[in-house]
């Protein structure tokens, strides 16, 4: 197989947020985006629950890829049995369905890639044509890889929106303005400094403040706050920021 996919026709199955953006980016990179043919690269960009049924219905193809983060190569085995070469190609970014998705993709993101050795050169070139960087993920680690992204990004959206709602309930008229610099600084510090970025009452062992927070928060938010406070205390102890004795009152509250 040629190492370069440039100029190959690419078939996209799925015209949702991910498929539409990838189709536009691949067309910009010089690929005819067409209905799949036997010599095409076929990319399946459908929800995870639909992936297996789509693969089962595929006709012959040279390379069959999917964009799922959670699934690896095993889900493509029916296509492999028909002569296809498998590829898992997950863009590690959020897709909102808005025009800025394509611009964000072009800025350069990581792709979680799983491929057999003979497909790796093609996979790497395809990712680089999309402006990205391949991050090679072992097939058995796909679920862990995707869980990490979901925990760090999807749950962050829930966390921020819960915080915005609480600020509104506290009478803050522009909660986004208040939270924006705090969240951006916390994220930047966490990415650069790891657990050294921990601040706030839990990292200080201030159990009375944590108890006051739990009393004030809406009932629907308290379980998430308890879970995050408990995990923050555990990380603070592991990082040497708190002693086990200092963390114990917080763990009792959570």
Describe this structure in words.
Helix content is 52%, strand content 11%. Helix 1 crosses helix 4 (100-106). The model has no long low-confidence stretch (mean pLDDT 92). It has helices at 17-28, 48-56, 77-81, 100-106, 120-129, 142-169, 175-193, 201-204, 207-216, 222-238, 244-253; strands at residues 10-13, 41-44, 63-66, 85-91, 110-114, 133-136. It has eleven helices and six strands. The protein has a six-stranded mixed beta sheet, with helices on both faces. By secondary structure, it is α/β, with parallel strands linked by helices. The protein folds into two domains: 10-137, NAD(P)-binding Rossmann-like Domain (Rossmann fold), CATH 3.40.50; 145-253.
Instruction: Encode the helix/strand succession as letters.
Output: EHEHEHEHEHEHHHHHH
CATH topology assignment of the largest domain: Rossmann fold
The radius of gyration over CA amounts to: 23 Å
What fraction, in percent, of the residue positions are helical? 40-55%
Numbering strands along the chain, what is their spatial order in the largest sheet?
1-2-3-4-5-6
Report the portion of residues in β strands.
5-15%
Number of helices: 11
Q: What is the first-to-last residue Cα distance?
A: 56 Å
CATH architecture call of the largest domain: 3-Layer(aba) Sandwich
Number of β-strand runs: 6
Main sheet, how many strands, which sense, barrel? Answer: 6 strands, mixed
Structural class: alpha/beta
The general outline is elongated
Top CATH class of the largest domain? Alpha Beta
The average pLDDT value, as a whole number, equals 92
């Amino acid at each position: 197989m040629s190492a370069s996919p440039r100029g190959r026709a690419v078939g996209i199955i799925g015209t949702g947020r991910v498929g539409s953006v990838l189709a536009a980016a691949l067309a910009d990179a010089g690929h005819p985006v067409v209905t799949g043919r036997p010599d095409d690269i076929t990319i399946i960009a459908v929800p995870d629950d639909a992936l297996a049924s789509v693969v089962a219905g595929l006709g012959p193809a040279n390379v069959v890829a999917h964009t799922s983060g959670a699934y690896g190569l095993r889900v493509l085995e029916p296509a492999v049995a028909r002569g296809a070469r498998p590829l898992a190609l997950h863009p590690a970014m959020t897709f909102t369905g808005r025009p800025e998705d394509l611009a964000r993709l072009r800025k350069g993101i990581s792709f979680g890639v799983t491929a057999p050795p003979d497909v790796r050169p093609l996979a790497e070139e395809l990712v680089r044509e999309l402006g990205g960087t391949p991050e090679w993920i072992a097939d058995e680690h796909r679920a862990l890889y995707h869980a990490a992204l979901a925990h760090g990004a999807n749950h962050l959206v829930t966390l921020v929106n819960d915080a915005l709602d609480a600020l509104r309930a506290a009478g803050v008229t522009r909660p986004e303005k208040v939270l924006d610099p705090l969240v951006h600084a916390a994220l930047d510090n966490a990415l650069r400094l790891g657990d050294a970025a921990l601040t706030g009452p839990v990292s200080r062992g201030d159990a009375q403040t944590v108890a006051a927070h739990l009393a004030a928060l809406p009932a629907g938010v308290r379980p998430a706050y308890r879970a995050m406070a408990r995990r923050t205390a555990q990380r603070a102890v592991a990082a040497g920021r708190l002693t086990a004795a200092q963390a114990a009152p917080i763990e009792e509250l959570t």
